[in-house]
Automatic annotation (TrEMBL):
Swiss-Prot/TrEMBL keywords: Transferase
Domain N-acetyltransferase: 121-260
Annotated TM spans: none
Entry protein name: GNAT family N-acetyltransferase
UniProt organism field: Streptomyces misionensis
Keyword Transferase belongs to the record: yes
InterPro entries associated with the record: Acyl_CoA_acyltransferase (IPR016181), GNAT_dom (IPR000182)
An annotated Gene Ontology molecular function: acyltransferase activity, transferring groups other than amino-acyl groups
Keyword Transmembrane helix: no
Length: 260
């Protein structure tokens, strides 16, 4: 498939016709906006098809909806979204832009998945609460942020689908040093790669690449054709070497409830 065809498929399958990304989440379609509302997971706008005349009103409507629920939320803006000044409109409405990442898609059968692990390191799949704790420990050490929301999300996934892998963790002996998630998107050819992180002392040793390769094989075993990643500037070169294609940018615009 050509770049434009893959991007159009991504927009249809993962944005315009998105399904909830976990238990306790629901997707609402309001006019030309698709949003997700979740108790413990991600809250935000997945897709919009706006023009200059209706954009500001649609922004106000989303603020009102999430404010009534008491949720902070994210408007996930893609580089090809319209109108072209939507980012500026979101900023004017009180949103804060987070760092821009690159949307990358890899066709699994075309990726270079030959990889190894450093001596003494093994990969384990988080299929129970103990495994979730390992993944969250990596997240907190790698990113320096609280992992409570991630723990809730992963435990909810395990409760809804027991026996599946909520995450993959690299262990050096018994120490968790890298972890990442795989989201198999039901009813689509896509699987999403999320949350890849490695503790500082273990960076640059091929763990991120190994986790991508492992998750790609799992996704292929479940019948998925494409992997989707929102890549940071650090991970983009690794993914390009594996065969991923850069399609567009993604920028999270965050709206926090007043007074928080």
């Amino acid at each position: 498939m050509e770049r434009d065809e893959i991007l159009a498929l991504y927009d249809r399958a993962l944005r315009e016709h998105a399904a909830p990304d976990g238990p306790g989440a629901r997707v609402e379609r309001a006019g030309r906006v698709v949003r997700q509302i979740a108790a413990h997971g991600w809250n935000g706008v997945l897709w919009s098809a706006l023009d200059e005349r209706g954009a500001d009103e649609a922004i106000r409507e989303q603020i009102a909806r999430f404010t009534a629920l008491g949720h902070d939320f994210e408007w996930k803006l893609h580089g090809h979204d319209r109108p072209g000044d939507l980012g500026a409109r979101l900023t004017a409405a009180g949103f804060r832009a987070e760092p821009t990442e690159t949307l990358m898609i890899g066709e699994i059968e075309r990726l270079d998945l030959f990889t190894g692990l450093p001596d003494g390191v093994r990969l384990v799949e988080a299929t129970d609460a103990a495994g979730v704790d390992l993944a969250v420990a990596v997240h907190e050490r790698a990113f320096g942020t609280d992992g409570s929301a991630l723990r809730h999300h992963l435990l909810d996934r395990l409760a809804a689908d027991p026996g599946t892998a909520a995450a993959v963790v690299a262990l050096a002996g018994d120490e968790p040093v890298s972890a990442a998630r795989l989201e198999l998107v039901p009813g689509t050819p896509f699987a999403g790669l999320w949350g890849g992180g490695t503790v500082e002392a273990w960076r640059g040793r091929g763990l991120y690449r190994a986790l991508v390769a492992h998750r790609a094989r799992v996704a292929a075993a479940h019948g998925r054709r494409y992997l989707q990643v929102d890549a940071s500037p650090m991970s983009r070169p690794v993914l390009e070497r594996l065969g991923f294609l850069a399609l567009t940018t993604t920028t999270p615009y965050l709206y926090e409830q007043p007074g928080r």
